[in-house]
Design a protein that fits this description.
- The chain is built from one helix and three strands.
- With 79 residues, it is of the alpha+beta class.
- Helices cover 67% and strands 13% of the residues.
- A hairpin with a 6-residue loop joins strand 1 and strand 2.
- It is rod-shaped, with a radius of gyration of 30 Å.
């Protein structure tokens, strides 16, 4: 693979075989990968919090239903 430096932008070189532009700035690539990983972790955290909230909602509904059953049972025994 032959490479030519791009005159307009020294951070790039051109592959002479397929004319592709290739970035030689590895620090930018590492920064991109780190930011992508951070975004993925944040997304996973948000999904976990949403799941926890939905679980709590369901548990509250169950507790409410149990209280209603208890109250109905108590009401029927009083009569």
């Amino acid at each position: 693979m032959m490479r030519e430096t791009v005159k307009e932008s020294p951070d790039f070189y051109r592959d002479t075989f397929n004319q592709a532009l290739i970035n030689r700035d590895n620090s930018s690539l590492l920064e991109y990968k780190a930011s992508k990983q951070k975004r993925l972790e944040q997304k996973n955290n948000i999904l976990k919090v949403q799941d926890d909230i939905n679980t709590l909602k369901n548990e509250i509904k169950d507790i409410k239903s149990m209280f209603e059953q208890i109250l109905n049972t108590l009401d029927s025994k009083e009569k």
